[in-house]
Amino acid sequence: AVKKIFDAFRNRTDAQRTFREIMFLQKFGEHPNIIKLLDVIQAENDKDIYLIFESMETDLHAVIKKGNLLKDIHKCYIVYQLLRATKFIHSGNVIHRDQKPSNILLDAQCCVKLCDFGLARSLCQLSEDQPTPALTEYVATRWYRAPEILLASRNYTKGVDMWSIGCILGEMLLGKPLFPGTSTMNQIEQILRVIPAPSPEDILALQSDSYHCFLTSRQRVAFEEIFPSSTPLPALDLLKKLLVFNPDKRLTAEEALRHPYVNRFHCPSREPSLDFDVILPLGDDVQLSVAEYRNKLYEMILEKKSKSLPKEQGQRENIQLSQSESSTLLSGFSSVAVPTRKGQQEPTPPLLNPSHVHTGATAGVQPIGSSQSKDLARTVCQRSQTSVMMYNPITHTTVQSRYHPPTPGGIMHVRPLVKPSKKMFQITANVGAAGDPRASMGSYSQAYGTISKSALQSLPIAKASENPEQ
């Protein structure tokens, strides 16, 4: 998928957000629930930038809008994956600050990928002494903003992301936005009408001077009155513990992963975290000039590509050597033809299972020597190490994960596996659904999608015929 950022360096704000998104995606992109940035291409006009991502079929906003596509198990699994991605980001001392349904990408296997890091910030680079009114005003989409942001608090914490996750969970359970405020004042009124009244200590914890005109007595509505009677009780309990006025009293991502609602998927060994702080190469407290952001970004892109060229050359040589060895070893085996996406027939080596192999029982299979068997087993083992098989609790199948950690040999599997299952969502469901609603044309847009064919043809990408298939 291609995301085009129009006039990425129009002003300081746009240049800073473009720089942030690319830098944070390069740091977090190896997590299975965070979108992977494959490449960054500079446009010929030196203004636009093309970001190449792995392809995802739709997003959560489009799925919710379609109606009753999600069952309870799907909602639970989506929340679990979102919490897992948030835990990974927070472990690097970074907050996303713009989690919403249109920034949560989905595929037919109900796998979640969190995207759009243009508003993310490193907590290590936040200055408490310096006011940042522009950030407070435009952070996050209004319906998913935490009370401390709405009340102009300068004290950013990881709780802003946990509030957004609570709003997303409430939207999945309700089928529509939980707090669809029409203005900042109406937004805080809708929130205070539902959540428990904040105590004086909670109000002081926000370090805000703007709360007096909002925190007035009003008729309250309980969560149980808003949601259908069929809503699972553990889901309501998690919702109540996420949508808390005081950010210090909200559940953290790690605590939420142990909640009974997502406990069926909880597995600490599959929930990685970072043991270091993620810090941008440029200071983020003060906006730098457009030229500084542009020059630093292009410099880092060129540096990364220059380092990757020797690796790619070595990978090609290793793959060619592996293919030549396997073709020699498997010359006596009958191949199985499976259909590809284009309808072509592509031969694949047979699966080796010791329990199904009997000496002389299979016609057309020639016995091979013990040395050849060892070489064959070594080759198959090397190939198996380039991918990760994961069990999908939704479809009850074992699929190949898109997360491919580097192997000791340096070989990486870069071609996605064909998905044999029937698609759950329509591919065109995300048309016009990503990004902020009614986004003006030509402005900075975090919309995730594709570009037109004519624009795609103008990209400075080498033709497929020039690069032989590996």
Describe the structure.
This protein has a three-stranded antiparallel beta sheet with strand order 1-3-2, with helices on one face. Helices cover 35% and strands 9% of the residues. The chain has a domain at 59-290: Transferase(Phosphotransferase), domain 1 (Orthogonal Bundle), CATH 1.10.510.10. Strand 2 and strand 3 (49-53) form a beta hairpin. The chain has helices at residues 12-28, 60-66, 72-91, 133-138, 147-150, 159-174, 184-192, 200-205, 223-226, 233-242, 253-257, 290-329, 370-384, 453-457; strands spanning 2-5, 37-42, 49-53, 58-59, 94-95, 104-106, 112-114, 121-122, 336-339, 345-348, 389-392, 397-400. The chain is globular, with a radius of gyration of 25 Å. The longest helix is centred in the middle third of the chain and has 40 residues, at 290-329. The chain is of the alpha+beta class and 470 residues long. Mean pLDDT is 73; it is low at 128-137, 325-370, 410-414, 420-452 and 463-470.
